[in-house]
Design brief:
Shape: globular
Number of strands: 9
CATH class: Alpha Beta
Bound molecules: pyridoxal-5'-phosphate
CATH architecture: 3-Layer(aba) Sandwich
Distance between the termini: 19 Å
Structural class: alpha/beta
Order of helices and strands: EHEEHEHEHEHHEEEHH
CATH superfamily: Ribokinase
Largest sheet: 6 strands, mixed
Helix content: 25-40%
Strand order of the largest sheet: 3-2-1-4-5-6
């Protein structure tokens, strides 16, 4: 089950999620949380979907369809977090993968202060993992030091934080999994260079697909990273801004 926003350029948001999850052999249940005005360069406006309607959709789906993981991206507004938290109360064993979407790569806002606070206080403690990029990690963990920011998020109730390094500058991308009372785990990955529209969404959705199929968090991250790398290697020049990872290649495992 996926709760995320619509990017009409087809690069990020629910389209990225649907494509990644489908390519990895799962059937997505897409619940749209917001509409955006967006191209491959930036987000210019957005409007949330009514939280009451989302609540009805979740209840309707849950009554009909089993689901094995939940993934969130842009959530629209704080009311949607409240609806989701009420819903999740009934499914404590379903892994929740939270991509804490705050800003588009071009700088456009996708979350206001109330939404950021509500995610931090109510949603993060319920997540199997949250997947902030460098900018989101600094903002959410109140520090420009990624280690300190991750520790701050763990002490605020997060169980695990996958700090993604795609926005850094090193020769390699290093994604780091921070967990309560566990050693950190690092994945050095090839940096292909450039910025790709929807790479964060693709990674979190691919992790959710792995968890839905019963993989451990580490194995789901492992496989999701390889999927994103391959999608980026084959990125599509959709518009004038960032290329879009090609998530159309299916994987049978
Ligand atoms: N979700 C929506 C609806 C978006 O419009 C965007 C970005 O612009 C994102 C998520 C985040 O995209 P990315 O994966 O590039 O961080």
């Amino acid at each position: 089950m996926i709760l995320s926003g619509l990017d009409p350029s087809g690069g990020a948001g629910i389209q990225a999620d649907i494509q990644a999850v489908t390519a990895l052999g799962c059937h997505p249940l897409p619940v749209l949380t917001c509409l955006t005005v967006q191209d491959t360069k930036n987000v210019y406006n957005s409007a949330p979907v009514d939280a009451g309607l989302i609540e009805q959709q979740l209840a309707c789906l849950a009554a009909d369809t089993p689901f094995q993981a939940i993934k969130t991206g842009a959530l629209g507004n704080a009311d949607v977090v409240d609806v989701l938290v009420r819903f999740l109360d009934r499914y404590p064993d379903i892994p929740l993968i939270v991509d804490p979407v705050i800003k588009a790569a071009g700088g456009g806002d996708l979350a206001d202060e109330a939404l950021i606070d509500r995610m931090r206080s109510r949603l993060f403690p319920l997540a199997d993992v949250i997947t902030p990029n460098g900018v989101e990690l600094a903002l959410l963990g109140n520090s420009d030091d990624p280690e300190k920011a991750a520790v701050q998020l763990l002490s605020g109730g997060c169980h695990s934080v996958l700090a993604t390094g795609g926005h850094g500058t090193g020769e390699q991308i290093i994604n780091i999994l921070h967990r309560e009372n566990r050693r950190t785990e690092e994945w050095p990955l090839e940096r292909i260079g450039g910025e790709y529209h929807g790479s964060g969404c693709t990674l979190a959705a691919a992790i959710a697909a792995g968890r839905a199929k019963g993989l451990s968090l580490e194995n789901a991250i492992d496989r999701a990273q390889l999927f994103v790398l391959e999608a980026i290697r084959n990125a599509l020049e959709v518009g004038q801004g960032q290329p879009v990872p090609d998530r159309s290649r299916t994987e049978s495992t």
